[in-house]
Each structure stands twice: as structure tokens, then as C-alpha cells.
Write a structure and sequence with these properties.
alpha+beta; four-stranded antiparallel β-sheet; two-stranded antiparallel ribbon; globular
Length: about 350
């Protein structure tokens, strides 16, 4: 890891902008082609996160079906399946429209709402088409940046960076994150906290190979990887180290914090809060529903699997959009009371799983 810890929170595009603004075109070209030690290249900078969000949503889609079917079986009606289909359909329309705004020549059929099974299949297909086009266009824009640098066109290179990041990646990223939040909110609002916990645990299980890879990393590599992941959400990330831990601050968090600051929890279509302390809230009395996935995926689930929380949050999901987490160098140094906040009482889903 050649990148100094003070630079872990800077995205490649940020570092490249600084090189361009200081007229260091040799460094700017090298960064665009070879990356910064974290991102492999400008072309690849956001493809990891974009594909990762797609993977997560592909895990969520059948779980929405399972949740709806379980509710229908217990109530004897089909309303839950119809509601889940509508939720997915709205997202599919939105993400297709967002892709069309980004890529005006995109060919992707508009279809009326189908059954739940049809909506899951169509949405997965739309995600795949979007991912292929995203990688193609990110690579094309990166090549244009390199050509602009070669022509000493600094303003042109900066404009292309903005197109690549702000005009292309960010709108698509935000809609993918928004659908995750809407899915969590639908489960909580319609079926309650216990069902949301079940949903999060199942989603974590569907992504378990990635968590197992993290578990095998030395603490420094895991902190470095975590910082890379978090800054891909486009928030402000800083990292520091002391004798026992790495601390990552997000001011704001680019996913959950951004949703809150953008007003997603206000108004007639507001996302809900989890309103009671427990494993969904880091033991806090109240938490935005989107942020509850961090409590489970990076806490409750890893506690089950590995005997420790991967990320230890401190005053998570603040009203100002900020969030702080710690990664301990030795598992025995993590505060025992944190694990207790995440632990469920006997007879709950965690013990039954």
C-alpha cells in the first residue's frame, strides 16, 4: 500500500484534478493510466462500486419476493407480491430513464408492470445492460481525458472528469442506493423490525464470500480496502491511525448520510426510521432505515460468522450526515459492550439462524 494513510480518503479523480490544476501533466497522465495505488486506473475507478451495487440489488430482488410470499402465505392474500412488483417496477423505470439521460442512444425497452417474477427478471436484465454500458463509457471518457492531457488541454480534461464522475456515475449510483433504501423501508414499514432483520441477515449471507475475504485481511489492508469502498459513495472520507485501531470518518457519508441530507426521510414519501434500540440500530434509540444494513451486514452478521464486528461504529448515522467507524488491529481490543449492543436475546432470529 504505497498510498500514505492521509491520502486513503481521496478518490483518484480528486488527486488527478489537483495534478491538473497544478499543471503537473506528467503526474496527471500517469494517474489516469496507472491509478493511484487504490483505483487501478481512471477507467476502472468507479466500476467496482457500480458492479458491487448491482450485485447487492440482484441479491435483494429474490429476497423481496421471499418476503412478499411469506407475508402472503400468512395472510392469505396477494397484496404483498403486487406491492413488491410495484416497488421493483418503479425502480426499473427510474434506472432506465437515468441511463437514457446519461446515454441518449441507449436502447432499453419500456414495458408495463408485470408480475413479481417478471419484474425481477426484467430489472436484472436492465442492470446488466447498464453495467456493460457504464464500463464502456467510463473507459471511453478516461481515454478522452488522457488525450486532453496529451494536448495540454487542462480545462478540457477537467470538464471530462466532471462528465465522467458527476454527470454519469453519480446519478446512477444515487438511484441504486435509493432502491436499496426503498426496499429496506418497504420491509420495515409493511412487516416490522424482525422481518427487516431477517432480510438484512439473508442479504448479508448472499454476499458472504466478500466478507470472508475481508476477514482474512490484515487490519491495515482491511482499513485501506474499507476506505476505498466508502469513498466510492462520493462522501468526504478521512482515515487516521493510533496504537490499537484505524478510524474512518465520513463527513458526510456518501450513501446513508447523503440520503438524509437530501431529505429522503422528510415528506409524504419519506423513508422510515427504525424506532427502537436493538441490533438494527447499533443499540441507538432511533436510526434511519438505510443505515440499519451497516449494523447488520458489518456487525451482527460478522459477529455470527467470525465472532467480531468488522466495523465498530461510534455515534453512527448522525443528523449532520456524518458517521465514524473503527477497525481494530486486534480483535480482543474491540469494546465488548459494542458486541453486546448487537447481540440478540435468546429465541430471536440470530440464535435460530
Amino acid at each position: 500500500m504505497a498510498v500514505p494513510i492521509g491520502e486513503w480518503g481521496r478518490r483518484l479523480s480528486e488527486v488527478l484534478r489537483l495534478a491538473l490544476e497544478s499543471n503537473d501533466l506528467v503526474r496527471a497522465r500517469r494517474l489516469a493510466l496507472d491509478g493511484d495505488g487504490q483505483a487501478r486506473s481512471l477507467a476502472k475507478e468507479y466500476t467496482f462500486m457500480y458492479r458491487g451495487l448491482g450485485v447487492t440489488i440482484r441479491v435483494l430482488l429474490p429476497l423481496l419476493r421471499e418476503t412478499a410470499m411469506r407475508a402472503a402465505a400468512s395472510s392469505g392474500g396477494a397484496d404483498s407480491a403486487s406491492a413488491a412488483a410495484s416497488l421493483i417496477y418503479r425502480f426499473r423505470n427510474d434506472i432506465i430513464e437515468a441511463m437514457r439521460r446519461v446515454w441518449s442512444d441507449l436502447v432499453c425497452a419500456s414495458e408495463s408492470q408485470g408480475s413479481l417474477e417478471e419484474e425481477i427478471e426484467r430489472t436484472a436484465r436492465a442492470l446488466g445492460a447498464g453495467e456493460a454500458r457504464f464500463e464502456q463509457e467510463q473507459a471511453r471518457l478516461a481515454d478522452e481525458v488522457v488525450r486532453a492531457i496529451g494536448a495540454r488541454d487542462i480545462l478540457g480534461a477537467l470538464a471530462l472528469l466532471n462528465r465522467k464522475e458527476q454527470d454519469q456515475y453519480l446519478p446512477l449510483h444515487d438511484r441504486l442506493v435509493g432502491f436499496m433504501a426503498e426496499s429496506f423501508g418497504w420491509v420495515l414499514r409493511c412487516f416490522g423490525a424482525e422481518e427487516l432483520l431477517r432480510f438484512h441477515l439473508a442479504t448479508a449471507e448472499g454476499q458472504r464470500p466478500g466478507f470472508e475475504k475481508w476477514e482474512k485481511m490484515p487490519a491495515e489492508e482491511f482499513a485501506w480496502t474499507s476506505a476505498f469502498l466508502l469513498k466510492q459513495h462520493m462522501g468526504q472520507v478521512t482515515v487516521r491511525e493510533d496504537e490499537v485501531k484505524f478510524t474512518i470518518d465520513q463527513t458526510p457519508c456518501g450513501s446513508g448520510g447523503h440520503l438524509r441530507l437530501a431529505g429522503a426521510y422528510i415528506g409524504p414519501d419519506a423513508l422510515p426510521f427504525v424506532e427502537s434500540p436493538g441490533p438494527l440500530t447499533f443499540g441507538q434509540p432511533r436510526l434511519p432505515v438505510y443505515c440499519s444494513h451497516c449494523a447488520v451486514w458489518n456487525g451482527v452478521a460478522t459477529l455470527r460468522w467470525f465472532g467480531r464486528a468488522h466495523w465498530v461504529f461510534e455515534n453512527a448515522a448522525r443528523a449532520d450526515g456524518g458517521c465514524r467507524l473503527h477497525i481494530y488491529k486486534k480483535r480482543e481490543d474491540a469494546p465488548a459492550e459494542y458486541a453486546q449492543q448487537l447481540t440478540l436475546a435468546a429465541g430471536t432470529l440470530l440464535d435460530q439462524a
